[in-house]
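LAB NOTEBOOK - FOLDING QUEUE
OPERATOR: T.R.
BATCH SIZE: 2
PURPOSE: Compare the predicted structure-token outputs for two unrelated chains run back to back under identical settings.
PRIORITY: normal
REVIEWER: second-year student, initials M.K.

ITEM 1
FIELD SEQUENCE / FIELD STRUCTURE:
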Amino acid sequence: MIILSIICAALGAVCRVYITDLLNAKISHSTITPTTFVNIIGSIMIVMFIPLMNINEFIHLLIPGFFGGFTTFATMTKEYYELITSKQYKSFILLFITYIILLLLTLSLYLFIQ
């Protein structure tokens, strides 16, 4: 089971890299960075799969494995740090507020599903 979780984490990381590279190539300037987009999508997917954990053991591989590799909060923190150190305060605040709002919406989705 641990090996499958590691494989799922690797697949999640590959998907994250592919999506962020694709978005970086398509979007030159946006309120939401590709990393934030991937983290929000990953969070929403985790919320949607949590109710299925008691039904299917494969979900136990998806949540910590695939979505653990898919989301990357360390990279997001690095992006925030780079915005602050390059004195792009407006972009940082806008991105941070957008992220908080999207996380609250994700939390609302979770509470609605329960």
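ITEM 2
FIELD SEQUENCE / FIELD STRUCTURE:
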Amino acid sequence: MERAAAVRVSTNEQATEGVSPDAQEDRLRAYCRLQGLELAVLVREGGISTSKPLPSARAGRSC
């Protein structure tokens, strides 16, 4: 079963001091392996606030 997932942080500070996008991606990939899921799409978005409408975010333009 194919799945899409996103890793994101809303500030640069979260990217360096919180759960990094790389750590989030590692956890997502491990979860998919354990559940027998294929990760078809992975969107990475950094330093974008959730208050910004999705189409104006870089990754949101591809949706």
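REVIEWER COMMENT (ITEM 2): The radius of gyration is 13 Å.
FOLLOW-UP: none requested
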